Amino acid sequence: MTRAVGLRWQERRPVLVWERGRVSPLSYGREIGFRAVGERRCVGARGRPCVVGAVVAGRSTGGRCAECARLDRAHSVAADTAVEDPRTYRVYLAWFGPGMVKVGITAEQRGDARLLEQGAVAYTWLGRGPLMAARRTEEVLGTALGVPDRIPYAAKRAARVRLPDAADRAAEVVALYRRAAGVPGWGETLERAAEPRVVDHAEVFNLGRVDAVDGVVSELVAGGSVRGAVVAVAGPDLHLLTGDGRRVVLDTRLISGWDLVPGDGEDDVTMPVVRMPRGEQGGLF
Prior knowledge:
Strand content: 25-35%
Number of helices: 6
Order of helices and strands: EEEEHEEHEHHHEEHEEEEEE
Shape: globular
Mean pLDDT: 90
Strand order of the largest sheet: 3-2-1-14-4-11-12-13-10-15
């Protein structure tokens, strides 16, 4: 029995991470199966365990109790509490689906790990520089281009079904890059990218095999099981094909803090599963 931490991207490959640092690489086409046991416990914050081992709700995607969530947030770049961070940051333009784009920042040393974690299908860099210059640029461009600072995961999942081809994806990213290049007020100390260089993750995520989603696991429950062949992985989402032919998505943020045991021979999916709202299915269901 092993307690899950969640899914991570290592060297552009998805792996499941467990307590004490053990990892399980995920391969497309391979069947995985597990059953949840006991209670879901807080995963702690910033590499430190929760001091009280608090029980966490099954639907929580954070996997943390209120106190650990506060501690984690208090030291995050997103909360603007790390203003003296000396690292170089990059500003990016990320594409998740037609008309679904955001501007964000990430530490340069992380490469495109942040884009993989978010499930960005395509992206391009906009510039690089100190943290606060990057943050100002993110805010200026987000406002000028009318794009949000975050996109709900439910919308990302729906957009992955039957994506436009790579050329169309790149064209939309480049067009928005051109608009961004014409926006005044970028941070004075930011080094702009001279030209757009679109990186596409569809092959990394194996999205060519995602032609529908029949349901999404809404929470894990003690005694419930999940089993299926891995069709694709995008961000934290596992796209699974079950033995009865259903195409089910498991948001692996839901597994953090659970003790999981092998589920070979179990029913395919006995966790609660919900269909995506009709308006988010792109007319495919």
